[in-house]
Give the backbone structure.
Amino acid sequence: MSKIRAAKVIVTCPGRNFVTLKIETEDGLYGVGDATLNGRELAVASYLNDHVVPCLIGRDAHRIEDIWQYLYRGAYWRRGPVTMSAIAAVDMALWDIKGKVAGLPLYQLLGGASRDGVMVYCHANGVTIEETIEAARGYMAQGYKAVRLQAGVPGLKSTYGVPKDKKPYEPADADIPTENLWSTEKYMRSLPALFEAGRDKLGWDVHLLHDAHHRLTPIEAGRLGKDLEPFRMFWLEDAVPAENQAAFRLIRQHTTTPLAVGEIFNSIWDCKQLIEEQLIDYIRATVVHAGGITHLRRIAALADLYHVRTGCHGATDLSPITMGAALHFNLSIPNFGIQEHMHHAAVTETVFPHAYSYKDGYMHPGEAPGHGVDIDEKEAAKYPYKRAYLPVNRLEDGTLYNW
Ligand code: KDG
Ligand code: MG
């Protein structure tokens, strides 16, 4: 028994907003969990402060599964990104505490290492194809075995994944959502040339990925997948919005390009049909938005039965705490595929010291007890919350579309 004495929510903006839950026990230990939901941060902070923290005090921090069920079933209102991110933060913090009590890195509690390192992919971005290929070359020189290629679309002023003014890419860039223009036709015409150049200039030994960011219809996705087949991609991500899981059947009928989806999923119910019907190859749900390590392990176990591997979301809006927790999860499960690695700003790293590291295309969570990521509260206090939204897309006739 290790009673929860206190829990507090820390909101900080070192380069971008993050929400962190810190749980303390009566025996003087603490654990931290990430609760960041990009553009809706304060909703999760309130859910935790107003509705979760009061129910945690006095509970046994070791009863991780019971607390998970208590917060999920006990709320009566199940699922949703706000609820599941809040539950995830509690779950991560409790696993962190358990690891510290055991004196073991979290992956050891999850069954031990199934591999020596976690293969990661990074983001090669550019306004032009040439810039993107140049960026990919730079990452390959650092040892990356897998690179995501995103380039500007001729005729569109800005698009997802492409930085402005050569600054590091951060989409939550305004205090009221920026409005972008979107044209599926222009995008579909431009993409094969990017991957042709990719194979031509980067060779065949590197894994190439791409994120369509939910902007196609199933039949468009089928055609794009077919057009990209000659380039043997590692995956085509988020080809269509996935609320309608059955819609993926249509994409599968038309292409053998591997499909990845799930960064916005928050429960096993969002991907049950996609997995059971083998409509996808990679499930991208991750620790913070999909209910923590406890729930993500359930998703991975289901996926394992159907040859679906994991590819956890790892953009900069997921804090280093999620990265640390995800690396322990990735190292331990049998059906790991790949992990996204988008570099955090240096100032973010000063607020979240961590034990994980990168070497030669692989990351490792390190051997610190727990998940190995901490928050420096003094540093965090220097960076107050700043409202920031993701952009929206409109079609050329002004219709609001998917971003
Ligand atoms: O908050 C939204 C971002 O996390 C998302 O746009 C990043 O699609 C993304 C990715 O694959 O990293
Ligand atoms: Mg994505």
Remarks:
- Residues 222 and 255 are 6 Å apart (CA to CA).
- The longest strand covers residues 4-12.
